[in-house]
## 1
Amino acid sequence: MKISGSLLSMRNDLENYINKVNECSLVDYIHLDIMDTDFVSNYSYSYEEIKTIVEKSKKPIDVHLMVKDISKYDYLLNVNNIEYITVHFEALDSFNIIDKIREYKKVGISIKPNTDIEKIYDLLVKVDLVLVMSVEPGKGGQQFIENTYERINKLKKETEKRKLNTVISVDGGINESNIKLLDQKKVDIAVIGTYLKKVLSN
Ligand code: DX5
Ligand code: ZN
């Protein structure tokens, strides 16, 4: 299982933490959580912070867009070290945006904890990654929602049935104990924020 590190809780000392993540062999990706005060109530990151992250990161970046107006972030399509751009299923008016991202990057679809996982099945053929939210999107430091395991099982069954190599990523509340279970469930990428800060501070 790969690790994608979220820096949300490290914003007050961003450059220092990016350097630490660059040196940390446990981390495979930097997870860039973008929030707009509309799709979720919080705001991250400022344009300057995004610039710092993409310029200083030595790891490939996986973008998580928790925003309504996805087109505002079109400039990310041309950033070299971004590997995945993930949009929320709940924010989509049409699926054109997925086709557009696909022309430039690997594309992901994210799903909130209370949205039926079955709703994204018909989109699986169009995306490279599914980001299963294990907390309500919008902030770090929340508790992992237990029925996420059931959602992962259902999703895995469906991708296998359709013979797809969809990357399954899980985001929110992942810590030293539940990370093992996610690995056993053959999750491909675990997104960690609070736990990563702990590891980097030791
Ligand atoms: C939540 C974000 C997560 C978050 C993860 O809305 O999408 O990526 O930063 O942080 P922890 O690991 O603290 O839940
Ligand atoms: Zn995220």
## 2
Amino acid sequence: MDSKTVVLGVTGGIAAYKSAELVSRLRKRGYTVHVIETKNATEFVTPLTFSTMSGQPCIVDTFDRPETWNVKHIALAQAADLFVVAPATANIIAKMAHGIADDMLSTTILATKAPILIAPAMNTGMWTAQATQDNMQILKSRGIHVIGPEGGKLACGDTGTGRMSEPCEIEQEIVQLLERPKDMQGLHVLITAGATREYLDPVRFITNESSGRMGFALAEAAMERGAEVTLVQGSTSVPQPAVTHSISVKTTQDLYDAVVSECSKADIVIQAAAPCDYRFEETYSQKMKKQSGEPVVLRMVENPDIAAEVGRRKQQGQTLVGFAAETEKLTDHAMKKLEKKNLDLIVANDVTMPGAGFNTDTNIVTLITREEMEPIPKMSKSQLAFVILDKILKLRNS
Ligand code: PMT
């Protein structure tokens, strides 16, 4: 039996009924579960249901006083190995983002030092509202884990994103968070993410569709496994995770400078960024004027190859990992890059496949080393990050 403790916050949304199943699943795994409901949540599911399912008193109000908890919010905050909020309404997300502590749940969350996982659930309009998205960005930047929300038909009749993830998926995420080994403690990992931009003038640039998701997932996973992470990111379109050290860059030359200056400190270098291979030969300090009727010819010159330079500088004991974004001859091209850049592992993705490559939540890759080729089925970039890190640790220990 595992004696880990999960404190589950349940807030006022129709998805609260699914949280009873979540409690049951967690108890079957041997976890101790304490439930804190907000007042609104009790309109959907009674505290009696949660007390019965968890075998512990369900706490609602800050002034409830079961004998075992003297200063309950502090005691529960300290008892938690993991704090989960499911469903998490727009209201609790806003309170968490801004440190508001006006009931038992928000007070306990503010006091806890445990990792936190939230499963947002709300109407699509509320989810996509700028205020909610800004608050989510704040929470993610503090290292709070998020699962969902999913798309589909919502209880309010709308169709869109806002449905809480299923209890079995939340359970899997909880297990992963609670059982993850800290097997990267003492390792320093340098990770690149996102796209670079090459400017023609102050308002025009070329770039690509990299969102940063793949590199960020790797950074998050490495942090969770106890590594020290330096993240060098170009332009990205999703919230950046909390890491040990982060550097923002714009152009491929900037990325080159940052990576070359940081790489000697790293045990592992993972280059998931999508740098522009070319830059404009001539650039303009003022907006280039339109020349009506005249074709414009813009010459481009090659950018430095960052991974190849890191490969040249490779130190003993260092593990170098690159990605290959291909549209044809996936493994042939990837293997050439593995050699040319002196990598230990290349993660090859065919970016033409649905659910793979740029700007998706999932990826489909083949892990290629000098000895073997391992196709990995489609999975979320977060899950894949763990698979890639497992592979890296296996290579380092072989
Ligand atoms: O960010 P996401 O939206 O999640 O998308 C993920 C991704 C598609 C960007 C990622 O999975 C990926 O494939 N990253 C590598 C993209 C790329 O530039 O591939 P490439 O085959 O052109 O480059 C091969 C390797 O050399 C890469 O590790 C790249 O970082 C590196 N490189 C490329 C060009 C350059 N001038 N210097 C480099 O170091």
## 3
Amino acid sequence: MSSPEEMKKEEAALPRHFIQNIIDKDIAEGHCKKVVTRFPPEPNGYLHIGHAKSILLNYGLAREYKGDFHLRFDDTNPMKEKTEFVESIMEDVRWICGDLDKDQVFYASDYFDQMYECALKLIKKGKAYVCDLSAEEIREYRGTLTEPGRESPYRERSVEENLQLFEQMRSGQFQDGQKVLRAKIDMASPNMNMRDPVLYRVAHMEHHNTKDNWCIYPMYDFAHPIEDAIEGVTHSICTLEFEDHRPLYDWVVRELEFEDPPKQIEFAKLYLTNVITGKRYIKKLVDDKIVDGWDDPRLVSISALRRRGFTPESIRMFMDLCGVSKSQSSVDYAMLEYCIREDLKLKRPRMMAVLDPIKLVITNYPENEIEYLDVSNNQENEEMGMRKVPFGRELYIDREDFMIEPPRKYFRLYPGNEVRLMNAYFVTCTDYVTDEEGRVTEVYCTYDPETKSGSGFTGRKVKGTIHWVCAETAHRAEVRLYENIVDEEKGVYNEDGSLNLNPNSLTVLENCYIEPALAEAEPEDSFQFIRHGYFCVDSKDSSQEHMIFNRIVSLKSSYRPN
Ligand code: ATP
Ligand code: MG
């Protein structure tokens, strides 16, 4: 991560958004002494780029106002949640934020006792009742947007009866769905969420944390404000679909008489064009083996972005560019690519790799000789120093850098033409060999020893420079190139709702050659491969014996920030 000074500078440079304005006002008016925010995922799947927005927003506000940030697992629903997801979410949040202490991690299920007490309090105040209607009847009684609901026949039960029945719900005397606890609010409210919402239901199910301690579980709209209040959250930031739930959120914290109740604030979700974020769709891609798990580099789960080679800094830059607002919009994936290029540009060494090799033989270069050339690691950042790159009589160059019959304005290698071998010498093509199908297999050249890079040679100029690797010292590697998994032109979904998959989303090149310095790379290390883009060592499949590089992004950009 950037240093604290750098972060401050970045923050100061950004326009302030509406949530910062709200917090500023709360502080100025004395309503908030210390800002506490939280990111509250349900551990029922992997986090994606959209969640990263919420994480960085909450984490960033806590840091900016010198407050606290909590990661709270919203694990109140025993049905869908799994420990596996708890682990992966923790790792993702730690990666995105740069750090995460144990004492920043909370579990909603740790508050089941307090939630139960809260329910008792509402019953005693006459604000909650046990209802025997079935789920279907409750729906019928609720009415519609244009018609008020009808009151449940169980609505006027006495406090004593409600206390007794609720205790019986808790002690397991009822079946799933037989009874629920409901808030007593207003069946005629124009807001459907206020029409006596269910607070607790019976579910004879084992919970991943509390095991079989409970057979009643709180509903989200009841549990969430209590969780926030218990943790002293001051600003409970969520996405727009919860706007209609805010009156209920406020009702819960008010009726439970929490001191300094939390305040819910909604913002617009992040949508990226031509990517898939829906859990249902990703799960299907995984199950159908179209992708290699939730961290397939073509996906935008946080683990996939990490495996693809994105950095937390690039994701933070992206979120800063997106901004925070209340209006729904979608952002082009190219903007995310722009951010990773910007982030890696000065930080990563620029290496030579040949992805589609043909042999180049320098006929006048001594046999069995290898010389070591001094090469700058990053011409735009001197601080990255130099490295030695071996050079010899036989090299590999990329197929696209040689043509038998070049079109106009092709300045690379062709018979009779002279080019610079990057960081090395001028070579002139004298001959070439093709196979039976006419594909070039070898190119012959002569070199001019006077033209060595860095020697100060100024005798003549050439128009083209091509990269290469020395055949004798090169290592073989596999390279994986990616395109969007859904077709950019045609949109994400077909008319029948199925995904419109791009057949070229993955290209595997098995016969690539890399310069020897790259063979030392560790999983997740990333580099620029000159002319080809930015690449990282795949953290899942790559090994010392069989190195695999993922292309993070090519060098060309269609996106320009305004
Ligand atoms: P999904 O259904 O897309 O997996 P979710 O909303 O079900 O997402 P939760 O675990 O409930 O997942 O979300 C945790 C937090 O992340 C919530 O506060 C939610 O509002 C926020 N969040 C989810 N998707 C986005 C998004 N696309 N942009 C910003 N915040 C998001
Ligand atoms: Mg959810």
